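Posting for a labmate who doesn't have an account.
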Amino acid sequence: MTFTLPIYNTEGKETDKVNLDPAVFDGKVNRDALYQVIVNYRANQRKGLAATKTRGEVSGGGRKPWKQKGTGRARVGSIRSPLWRGGGIVFGPHPRDFSYNLAHKIKLLALRSSLNAKLKENNIILLNEIKINQSKTKEMAKILLNLAALLGNANKSTLLLAQKIDRNLRLATNNLAALEVNLAKDANAYQVMAARKVIITKDGLKELVDRLKI
């Protein structure tokens, strides 16, 4: 089965059509691979900085508060005992690394599945090219306004994948909170699934297909 998508220019007008490579866009969505990659991506983003102090790390408590026997009170070696207010924590969290590696083939399968999922939802928009003459937010906002009929709700997240991102494009998109820009060669399944709409330039699509056909 071959999927066909229209190609639009930055004015929102259809200029051509393209047959998507069936080796990548086959309509198959591997949910298991998507789940693994998304969990892996989010785990790798975790800082793992939560920390508590044990009784040996809490300041003070070096002197025994009272003698061992003869007071009628329970024996205590330090006022920083975990049983005391202000004492150490027994099984509290400590800094750790949550990241782990995932097989490259699974990542590629998940990316292919995410693109197919967006394709089936009719949420992929192909652009002939995107060129910003001035590093002004209004330049990019104008393009998004031209594509409004295709994008729908402008407040929903949109992912733009291009072959290259020059200085003007980067500066023009910095202040658009609902728009994320990335190189097509660096795209990942998490980004694609998190976006409501995915805009891909013609050259960016070629890079994606070449990357996923390996």
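Reply:
Got it, the structure tokens are right above this. The first strand starts at residue 4 and ends at 8.
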